[in-house]
Amino acid sequence: MASPTNYDKRPHHHPSSLWFSSLNLVLLLMAPLVVFLLLVSTLSPQHPSTLYPLSFSSYRSSIVQEPTFNNSIVNGSFTDSSSLEAETDFFAPNVPFSDAIMEKETPQLEEMSKNKESEGIVKRNSKLERIEANLARVRSSIKEAALVRNLSSIHQDPDYVPQGPIYRNANPFHRSYLEMEKLFKIYVYKEGEPPMFHNGPCRSIYSSEGRFIHELEKGNFYRTQDPDEALVYFLPFSVVMLVHYLYNPGNFKTDAIGRVVVDYVDVISGKHPYWNRSLGADHFMLSCHDWGPRASSYVPHLFHKSIRVLCNANTSEGFNPSKDASFPEINLLTGEVEGLLGGPSPSRRSILAFFAGRLHGYIRYLLLNEWKDKRDPDVQVFDQLPRGVSYTSKLKDSRFCLCPSGYEVASPRIVEAIYAECVPVLISDNYVPPFSDVLNWKAFSIQVAVKDIPNIKKILMGISQRQYLRMQRRVKQVQRHFVVNASPKRYDVFHMINHSIWLRRLNIQVRDFDHS
Ligand SMILES: *[C@@H]1O[C@H](CO)[C@@H](O)[C@H](O)[C@H]1NC(C)=O
Ligand SMILES: *[C@@H]1O[C@H](CO)[C@@H](O)[C@H](O)[C@H]1NC(C)=O
Ligand SMILES: *[C@@H]1O[C@H](CO)[C@@H](O)[C@H](O)[C@H]1NC(C)=O
Ligand SMILES: *[C@@H]1O[C@H](CO)[C@@H](O)[C@H](O)[C@H]1NC(C)=O
Ligand SMILES: *[C@@H]1O[C@H](CO)[C@@H](O)[C@H](O)[C@H]1NC(C)=O
Ligand SMILES: *[C@@H]1O[C@H](CO)[C@@H](O)[C@H](O)[C@H]1NC(C)=O
Fold first, then answer.
1. How far is CA 25 from CA 116, 230, 273, 367, 458, in A?
2. pLDDT tens across 73-126, in order?
3. Which part of the chain is the Exostosin GT47 domain (predicted)?
4. Residue 217: phi, psi to the nearest 5?
5. Which of 88, 411, 430 maximizes ligand 6 atoms within 8 Å of its Cβ, making it the mutation to test the pocket?
6. Considering every ligand atom, which ligand is closest to the CA of 2?
7. What are phi and psi of 149, to 5 degrees?
8. Which of 14, 41, 304, 355 could join 402 via S-S bond, C-beta 3.0 to 4.6 A?
């Protein structure tokens, strides 16, 4: 097996010794701002229950290098495309999460020597000041936009004007989006080699992770080559790849994965000034793997301070919607969305509710247990579809599509339902749905509490035809925010993830301690 740390050879320090060695470093502080209140209370006036991030990277090979060893993840062959249940079988993620969180000492950051101040630092700081001044202006412009109480954005836009109840508040969202297009810049660290860095799966259940990493690598939109100009910094590792190459299913140990993440942060914080100045708060990682949270837990600042863009947005596993972003899980078996989008009108949908999927996790257990053997023609729940029955056509024949959590909180069924124009029914605990900072999920989805699984039919039958038609129309409207385009289009899923990251960056202020 290739060495996991071939991105940069340097003597390995014990991670904590690094924090105590006296170093010439410019310490910057992150001051949490009221902005999140702005974003959560105006863009998202309800309970801060969902979020979503995204961003991009620059770097070496935009071409995926095929690993010389096992490349089955790269080409997606590890998913069983004959079954619906690609979910997370593959890595049998059954170790209790809490065992993986390592309590480490918080670094002592007071001791900094200031003797190495160079012109470079001064220049960097003036750039930083300019960036922060711009962001301050943006914050107040979004706040101002939030004062407009209108269902429709009042900004001009040639492509799309956000409007209607699918948004928490269309006008400040639109303003924020337009400002993002002007100002957002992402720097992708170049350190790290494929296949574990700068690479990721583009098909299968984990496709969102790989697709996003690849988009960042291409960097057509907001990527910058000058790290001093960046608003955020991307740590381009793929947890799917780390697990694939480094996890030994025999002993359930994830230490090797943790070591690579620790080493990587060690390398970039040693070589570049940016990690230390914010303690990672303007850095982000991205993962669709169940173990995204666990992989980040090996570096306490990554876990507690950085922006973590995660499919597994489980608030019981430390997901914090004010700094982390929920990433939609999208299962692209072929890598393409063609044929998945659209469906018949509501009057031609004969099934009330539909689900097919294996018994993954306790919520599925409750659902299957309750409904599978009832064979109720209205609520069709399968662990395995009968032969010859097409999954996609079932989605399209249904009015509501049940989306229970599996081994992790996120379910690819949410996006499948939205693609098929079937109203999603979220059944989960502690899940923050994607883009909840911007989208008003209640307008286009139903949330059923786990304890109400036996009452699903009653709940869904209780929704009036008028209300259903409204929701279904909104599902069609919101679809654009979940579509994966071969080359990204404005307001599509990649841009929305970027927007989630951008919003999180707006919520913090980075300062240089020595120069303020
Ligand atoms: C950042 O801080 C760590 C730990 O204190 C130190 O080892 C590293 O050299 C610092 N990085 C820079 C660029 O000064
Ligand atoms: C690659 O995967 C196959 C099938 O899972 C396995 O039998 C083989 O040992 C793997 N090879 C390496 C080099 O890991
Ligand atoms: C994917 O990679 C695996 C392992 O190398 C190989 O056996 C399989 O044929 C490949 N599949 C495709 C579709 O390329
Ligand atoms: C509110 O939105 C409508 C379009 O939906 C627009 O015609 C109207 O001018 C807006 N009101 C204000 C105060 O901007
Ligand atoms: C998101 O932003 C990054 C960096 O700005 C950019 O490289 C990437 O292309 C964007 N993604 C999409 C899909 O627009
Ligand atoms: C969310 O996290 C908690 C705590 O680790 C765990 O018990 C629960 O099973 C997770 N939810 C899902 C659906 O995996």
1. 8, 19, 7, 54, 62
2. 222 222 222 222 222 222 222 333 333 233 333 333 333 344 445 566 677 778
3. 181-461
4. -65, -40
5. 430
6. 2
7. -100, 90
8. 355
C-alpha–C-alpha distance, residues 489 and 218, integer Å: 14
Distance 242 CA to ligand 6 centre (A): 22
Residue 157: band (very low, low, confident or very high) from pLDDT cuts 50, 70, 90: very high
DSSP code of residue 470: H
Compute the distance from residue 281 Cα to the ligand 6 centre, in Å: 25
- The residue type of 250 is G
- Is the pLDDT at 422 greater than 50? The verdict is yes
Which ligand has the nearest atom to the CA of 244? Answer: 2
Whole-number Å distance between alpha carbons of 240 and 256:
14
What amino acid is encoded at 27 in this protein?
L
Tell me: the pLDDT tens digits for 185-220? 999 998 888 888 888 777 666 777 788 888 877 765
Distances (CA, A) of 334 to 65, 328, 338: 19, 17, 9
- Ligand with minimal distance to 72 CA: 3
Nearest Cα residue to atom 9 of ligand 2: 70
Q: Is 16 in the pocket of ligand 6 (CB under 6 A)?
A: no
| 156 CA → ligand 4 middle, Å | 12
Residues in Cβ contact with 5 at an 8 Å cutoff, skipping those fewer than 6 apart: 12, 259, 260, 263
**In 356-433, where does DSSP find H-type helix?**
361-371, 391-397, 413-419
Angle at 216 between CA 211 and CA 218, to 5 degrees: 95
Q: What is the number of the ligand 5 atom nearest to the C-alpha of 493?
A: 13
The bound ligand whose nearest atom lies closest to the alpha carbon of 273 is: 1
Q: Which domains does the chain have, with CATH numbers?
A: 346-481 (3.40.50.2000)
Residue closest by Cα to atom 4 of ligand 3? 72
Distance 223 CA to ligand 5 centre (A): 7
